[in-house]
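Service request form, structural biology core

Requester: graduate student, group of Dr. S.
Request type: structure prediction, single chain
Budget code: on file
Notes: please return the result as structure tokens.

Sequence provided:
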Amino acid sequence: MRVEFTDDEVNEALILLVNKMADEAGLPDKDRAALKRWRSSEMKLGSDELDDLVRKANEDLKRGMDRRERSQIRKPDWRQ
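Core staff response, request fulfilled:
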């Protein structure tokens, strides 16, 4: 089975993460604004930076799924 994140999914997750960090980290208004500006200018859909993030997220997801699959294969039936 092949599972991958889309650009839109990673972008939405990034928006939520950055907004939550900016709101809950106790940053001054200037720093919160800078963080949100960075996300909206550097990490927009179609940018090389977001494409790299999507690629890395999918590589990590695949690596985790492969590891989980291997551990299930090695697990003896009697230890379920």
